[in-house]
Design the sequence.
C-alpha cells in the first residue's frame, strides 16, 4: 500500500514578476528529511513522466489551485527542479506568489512541499524512497497552517517584545504593505494590523484573522 506523505524543503531560487514564475526545488535528493526518508535521484521520474500534467500547485497543501507546473527538471542531481506559473489573474494565485516572494526576500522560512504517496522503497534501506506518486506541490507561506492566532492576541504579544525586535517587526509589516502587490483582502488585513499597532484593539477587531503573511512574520519574531 502506498504511503501518503507531505514533505517540505525550503529551497527557492528565482522569481519573475511579469509572468508570475517561481523556480526552485520541489524536493532534494540524498538528504534525510523530518520523516526519516531519503529521496533518491530518479524517484520522481515515473510520476512526472506519466502524470506531470495532472500535478497542481497549491498553497500550504490547501485544496485550491494557485498555479501549475510548467517544467520539471529530472536531470538535476541535486533535486526535483520545478518551474511553476502562478495564476496572477486571480487573487489567490497573486497572493500566493507575492507572499512566497516577500518571505524569501526578507529571510523568512519559505519554500515548496510535495504532496502525494511513497510508492516504492529500497529493499536495502527502507529509509530510501525509490519512487513517488505526486498529487500536488505546494508553495509554503506559513510554518504552521493550523495557527489560529488572532490580530488582537498578536498585537498584545508584540507589545511585550523588547526593542529592537518590536521595531523590526513593525518595519517588516510596513514593507509588506508598501512594496508588494497583494490582493485587496491582504492589503486590508495589513492596514488594519498597522492601525492596531499603536492602539489597544477595540471589540470589533477581536474576531479578525490575520493573513498567513502576518502569521509568518510574527512567528519569526516570537521564537
Sequence:
Amino acid at each position: 500500500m502506498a504511503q501518503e506523505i507531505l514533505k517540505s524543503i525550503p529551497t527557492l531560487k528565482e522569481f519573475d514578476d511579469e509572468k508570475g514564475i517561481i523556480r526552485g526545488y520541489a524536493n532534494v535528493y540524498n538528504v534525510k528529511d523530518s520523516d526519516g526518508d531519503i529521496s533518491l535521484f530518479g524517484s520522481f521520474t515515473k510520476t512526472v513522466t506519466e502524470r506531470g500534467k495532472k500535478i497542481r500547485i497549491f498553497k500550504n497543501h490547501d485544496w485550491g489551485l494557485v498555479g501549475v507546473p510548467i517544467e520539471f527538471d529530472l536531470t538535476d542531481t541535486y533535486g526535483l527542479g520545478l518551474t511553476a506559473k502562478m495564476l496572477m489573474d486571480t487573487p489567490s494565485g497573486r497572493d500566493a506568489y507575492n507572499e512566497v516572494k516577500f518571505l524569501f526576500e526578507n529571510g523568512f522560512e519559505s519554500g515548496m512541499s510535495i504532496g502525494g504517496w511513497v510508492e516504492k522503497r529500497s529493499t536495502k534501506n527502507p529509509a530510501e524512497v525509490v519512487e513517488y506518486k505526486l498529487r500536488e506541490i505546494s508553495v509554503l507561506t506559513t510554518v504552521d497552517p493550523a495557527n489560529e492566532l488572532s490580530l488582537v492576541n498578536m498585537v498584545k504579544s508584540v507589545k511585550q517584545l523588547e526593542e529592537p525586535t518590536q521595531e523590526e517587526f513593525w518595519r517588516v509589516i510596513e514593507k509588506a504593505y508598501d512594496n508588494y502587490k497583494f490582493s485587496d483582502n491582504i492589503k486590508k488585513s495589513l492596514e488594519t494590523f498597522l492601525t492596531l499597532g499603536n492602539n489597544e484593539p477595540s471589540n470589533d477587531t477581536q474576531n479578525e484573522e490575520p493573513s498567513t503573511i502576518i502569521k509568518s512574520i510574527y512567528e519569526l519574531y516570537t521564537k
Summary: The chain has two domains: 3-140, 151-221. The radius of gyration is 19 Å.
